[in-house]
Amino acid sequence: YQRRVHGKTKMMRSLVQAARASGAIFGPRRSMGMYLVSTPPVTEKPEVVRARLDSYAQYLATALPKWVQATQVTGANELEVLISPSGVLPVLTFLRDHTTGQFKNLSDLTAVDVPTRKNRFEVVYNLLSVANNTRIRVKTYTDELSPLDSAVPIFNAANWYEREVWD
Description:
The protein is α+β, with helices and mostly antiparallel strands.
């Protein structure tokens, strides 16, 4: 057993040395690990990002017409989707499970109180797609008496956020 582990460690060390010699490994050597980067990160031009977000917003509006009421891309190139209160579960499930979105991470859930509005509470879900390196903000609205469906069956992280929003 020790020989096999030692052999794999020796083989891994030689692979890392070869990668370092070829320039595929950048960054400082550390005892806990190293940075494996084959190419430096490339950022897209803001116009390209905006066009991609606009096309995805149109796709969402056509795929979920019953629940998506409005979409917009903000000045900071972030996609915002306004949905009806009855569409919280279907829209969040679609965004999480559909292959074009893959928004698997609920980054934040918060609420905004605007007392002058009829539906004074605006509930905001901030989602992250690690696969696409994209964020989306889903907004809905409610009043003091109309409850919203819980997002906990879709995102377990919503449990604590929903308790904080309720307070």
